[in-house]
């Protein structure tokens, strides 16, 4: 189902860089506003401590020490998967249909990983020690602490993705330099240090290997590995332990990642009239992937529910019964199921397909996966093996401070795309021109 | 317990002789050594004498003598002990002077030879050497292990739920409201009607503690010298992973400013003998939990407080017994022994039964954490439910549900509320 967009000219490609509109300003204001709201609340947290959240001690206190912050951390790492996996699929498997959105996806990876990292910073009681305590401890703790595994793998993932991006944009900047804003020349000069056209072929091979490393690392080691292992390896909580968490987390990550790409791609298509550059076929393809990943997600939830209620040990049975008695859980499942049904229905009846509907359903999927992850963290803590505490399960509703951080990180992603799209082409030149054309000013 | 393990029977000489005959080594030497090794473990023969008696013949047979025995360390000798050098001298008479070098490097060879010979007493001699001043504790006695391992025996049958231990702990460690490092459950269980049971819960100071494993920065750690599980308040980043991984719910994070300010806490209570800040309540943003009164164990509250805890001292019901689990004479081991002695099992008719009928348990032992707190009494079943005890937490000036305190603090942050 490859789609040829090579007829699109270069001016269309750099349209975000060369235009400036009130709508852009409005979006910028929204992004900055969201960040501002969060900063006001975060200042209070820095001043008074985590007491301003609704987190609390589990045990005699009956609370949850991990809540929305950790749920949102997992969620953002999940979204980050989409970028590079999609991009790597284009490069390694020749899925050229998705080339127009490959770089948007890579940028989403960078932005989402940044937000995930930020949630770690917000979550800890002593953010000032993240460097002074973590760096010296790394050599001795990395073989023990799953949290240190997370920090390590996420950092490696970030570095690989950033390297991948930095290497591939040199090709485009070199060929589009005359269309890029001259006030930013120092930045472009820095990005282009030592560039010669001879490197293109070498870089092509290098990014192939980086893509190869990432596509192995991201699903198997990140969301299929260290993130679920934060929970799956613990002896304390009935709802957490077990090998199904790896595949389950991965399915949630891929579902949210594709949803994220659909939303970002649709936003750019709408804002810059990119109907030709990002054609319908891209969205149809992405929605089928979303349908497939949603199916896997739902299937793995079914596995957990069935094994948890049929003849499970007391504590696991209890945890599962609580989970399926929680309305929010079914809202999450419903939102993902809806997207799946729509994706499959439009495969059978292509005329039903509508990008706006798909975007709305993708937003629903992201809300559903966030809800599922926060519930997983919170309900896991509320139904421990040691069930003697009368205060457990206590109630947990995220505080305004915690919710503001969610808004703040969404604002950061919005701001990131608004700024980056003014600086570099967010669609690869390769999407509209065959490889390795000579410079053609 | 491994103390019950008996060495291979010495009178089973025929079997040993057959085993030894199959090897290329001296059968008579093996049998003689086996007999004498048992005399060593019985205290009839000194280790040094055992070493000297066979040294020449072992060297002749194996080219090397690498039996593990505890020779006195000259570096640690008391300078006033004039007999020390003589003893060393006589022990080493006729022994290869560069034995120091060979001791570890040729261990494999010696062990292989011993294994091949099937020397019955070899393992016994090693055990005898490793056990210091004789273990000999009964079934309830000290576990094997070197050095100190602080732990508790809590007798639930004695606890009346007075909460004095909780109050004492709270006061001694300057805890913030609701941070109940010691927490006493009152509970009712299935099939026990309205009868109320009690369970005092400290940190279990697990030997295989999940919290120390998961800590990303090594702030939560096990102190090597005595097995205490502590938090280094200078390193902790406050990620709360220890709290999440603990099956017992013993961790209490410092969500806001501590109730008792830094200026009111002495360094003696806070800094341990390694110079690390692990004692008393944690500062804001850092994790805290029961320390088994580390300041007392380090002698910073006086020599007479070593081997005691605030909760144990406050307990008038003889329920809490703190001490060195490696020492058979320590209060937790003594109490268990004494308690069991009163409840002998009928071994005359049922020889395979345990020696006593006392019910003991470790909390959720099946989680694999190897807790260092043992309980006498009935373990709460999964269906047990916490109920109100005879003394309310509030009556002792304590807070049960910390969430209430935290909510208060959250809604009044402008006023600098603490928790």
Structure description:
The complex is a heterodimer of chains A (441) and B (419). Helices cover 71% and strands 0% of the residues of chain A. Chain A has 441 residues and is mostly helical. Chain A has one domain: Formate dehydrogenase/DMSO reductase fold, CATH 1.20.1630.10. Mean pLDDT of chain A is 92; it is low at 436-441. Chain B has 419 residues and is α+β, with helices and mostly antiparallel strands. Chain B has helices at residues 13-21, 27-41, 47-62, 83-92, 99-105, 107-117, 122-130, 164-172, 210-214, 241-245, 267-270, 294-297, 310-314, 331-341, 402-411; strands at residues 150-155, 183-188, 197-201, 220-222, 229-231, 252-253, 287-288, 320-324, 360-361, 373-376, 385-386. In chain B, strand 4 (220-222) and strand 5 (229-231) form a beta hairpin. The longest helix of chain B is centred in the N-terminal third of the chain and has 16 residues, at 47-62. Chain B is globular and about 85 Å long. Chain B starts with 12 loop residues before the first helix and ends in an 8-residue tail after the last helix. At the A-B interface, helix 3, helix 6 and helix 7 of A face strand 2, helix 9, helix 10, strand 6 and strand 11 of B.
Radius of gyration of chain B: 27 Å
Overall pLDDT level of chain A: 92
Give the biggest beta sheet of chain B. 4 strands, mixed
State the low-pLDDT regions of chain B, or none: 1-11, 71-141, 413-419
Distance between the termini of chain A: 32 Å
Question: Averaged pLDDT of chain B, please?
Answer: 78
Ends distance of chain B: 45 Å
The CATH class of chain A, by name, is Mainly Alpha
Strand order of the largest sheet of chain B: 8-1-10-9
Q: Specify the oligomeric state.
A: heterodimer
Helical/strand content category of chain A: mainly alpha
* SSE pattern of chain A: HHHHHHHHHHHHHHH
CATH superfamily heading of chain A: Formate dehydrogenase/DMSO reductase domain
Q: What value does the Rg of chain A take, in angstroms?
A: 23 Å
Number of helices of chain A: 15
Helix content of chain A: over 70%
Number of DSSP helical runs of chain B:
15
In total, the number of strands of chain A is 0
């Amino acid at each position: 189902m490859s789609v040829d967009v090579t007829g699109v000219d270069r001016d269309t490609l750099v349209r975000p860089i060369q235009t400036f509109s009130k709508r852009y300003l409005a979006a910028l204001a929204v992004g900055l506003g969201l960040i501002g709201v969060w900063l006001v609340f975060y200042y209070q947290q820095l001043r008074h401590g985590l007491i301003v959240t609704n987190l609390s001690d589990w045990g005699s206190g009956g609370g949850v020490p991990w809540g929305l912050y950790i749920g949102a951390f997992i969620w953002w790492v999940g979204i980050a998967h989409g970028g590079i996996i999609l991009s790597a699929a284009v490069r390694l498997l020749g899925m050229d249909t998705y080339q127009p959105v490959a770089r948007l996806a890579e940028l989403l990876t960078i932005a989402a990983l940044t937000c995930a990292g930020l949630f770690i910073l917000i979550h800890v009681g002593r953010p000032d020690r993240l460097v002074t305590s973590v760096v010296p401890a790394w050599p001795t703790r990395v073989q023990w602490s799953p949290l240190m595994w997370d920090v390590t793998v996420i950092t490696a993932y970030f570095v690989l993705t950033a390297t991948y991006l930095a290497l591939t944009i040199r090709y485009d900047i070199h060929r589009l330099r005359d269309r890029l804003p001259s006030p930013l020349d120092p930045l472009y000069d820095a990005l282009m240090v030592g560039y010669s056209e001879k490197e293109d072929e070498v870089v092509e091979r290098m990014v192939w290997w980086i893509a190869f490393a990432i596509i192995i690392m991201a699903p198997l080691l990140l969301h299929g590995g260290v993130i679920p292992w934060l929970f799956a390896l613990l002896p304390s909580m009935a709802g957490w332990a077990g090998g199904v968490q790896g595949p389950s987390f991965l399915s949630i990550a891929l579902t949210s990642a594709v949803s994220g790409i659909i939303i970002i791609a649709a936003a750019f298509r709408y804002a810059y009239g990119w109907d030709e550059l990002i054609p319908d076929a891209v969205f149809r393809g992405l929605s089928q992937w979303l349908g497939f990943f949603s199916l896997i997600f739902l299937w793995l939830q079914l596995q957990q529910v069935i094994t948890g209620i049929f003849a499970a040990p007391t504590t696991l049975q209890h945890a599962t019964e609580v989970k399926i008695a929680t309305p929010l859980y079914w809202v999450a499942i419903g939102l993902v199921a809806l997207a799946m049904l729509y994706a499959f229905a439009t495969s059978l009846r292509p005329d039903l397909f509508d990008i706006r509907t798909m975007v709305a359903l993708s937003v629903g999927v992201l809300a559903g996966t966030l809800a599922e992850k926060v519930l997983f963290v919170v309900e896991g803590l509320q139904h421990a093996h040691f069930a003697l505490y009368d205060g457990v399960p206590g109630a947990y509703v995220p505080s305004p401070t915690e919710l503001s951080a969610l808004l703040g990180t969404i604002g950061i992603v919005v701001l990131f795309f608004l700024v980056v799209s003014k600086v570099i082409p967010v669609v690869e030149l390769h999407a509209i021109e065959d490889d390795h054309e000579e410079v053609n000013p | 317990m491994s103390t019950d393990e008996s060495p291979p029977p010495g009178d089973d000489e025929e079997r040993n002789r057959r085993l030894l005959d199959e090897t290329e080594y001296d059968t008579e030497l093996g049998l003689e050594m086996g007999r004498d090794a048992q005399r060593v473990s019985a205290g009839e023969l000194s280790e040094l004498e055992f070493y000297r008696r066979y040294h020449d013949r072992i060297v002749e047979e194996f080219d090397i003598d690498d039996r593990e025995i505890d020779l006195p360390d000259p570096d640690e000798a008391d300078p006033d002990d004039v007999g020390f050098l003589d003893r060393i001298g006589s022990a080493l008479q006729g022994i290869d002077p560069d034995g120091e070098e060979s001791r570890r490097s040729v261990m494999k060879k010696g062990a292989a030879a011993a294994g091949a010979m099937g020397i019955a007493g070899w393992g016994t001699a090693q055990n005898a050497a490793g056990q210091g001043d004789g273990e000999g504790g009964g079934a309830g006695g000290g576990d094997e292990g070197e050095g100190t391992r602080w732990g508790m025996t809590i007798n639930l049958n004695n606890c009346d739920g007075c909460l004095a231990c909780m109050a004492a702990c709270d006061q001694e460690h300057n805890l913030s409201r609701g941070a109940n490092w010691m927490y006493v459950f009152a509970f009712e269980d299935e099939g026990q009607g309205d009868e109320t049971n009690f369970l005092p819960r400290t940190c279990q100071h697990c030997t295989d503690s999940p919290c120390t494993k998961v800590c990303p920065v090594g702030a939560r750690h096990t102190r090597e010298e005595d097995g205490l599980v502590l938090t280094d308040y200078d390193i902790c980043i406050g990620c709360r992973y220890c709290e999440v991984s603990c099956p017992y719910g013993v961790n209490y994070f410092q969500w806001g400013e501590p109730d008792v300010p830094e200026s009111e806490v002495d360094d003696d209570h806070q800094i341990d003998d390694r110079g690390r800040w692990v004692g008393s309540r944690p500062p804001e943003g850092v994790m805290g939990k029961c320390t088994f009164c580390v300041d007392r164990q380090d002698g910073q509250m006086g020599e007479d407080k070593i081997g005691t805890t605030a909760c144990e001292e406050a307990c008038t019901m003889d329920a809490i017994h703190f001490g060195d689990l490696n020492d058979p004479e320590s209060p937790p081991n003594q109490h268990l022994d004494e308690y069991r002695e009163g409840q002998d099992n009928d071994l005359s008719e049922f020889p395979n039964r345990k020696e006593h009928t006392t019910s003991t348990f470790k909390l959720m032992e099946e989680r694999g954490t190897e807790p260092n707190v043992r309980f006498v009494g009935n373990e709460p079943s999964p269906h047990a439910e916490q109920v109100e005890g005879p003394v309310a937490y509030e009556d002792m000036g304590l807070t049960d549900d910390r969430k209430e305190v935290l909510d208060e603090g959250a809604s009044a942050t402008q006023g600098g509320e603490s928790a």
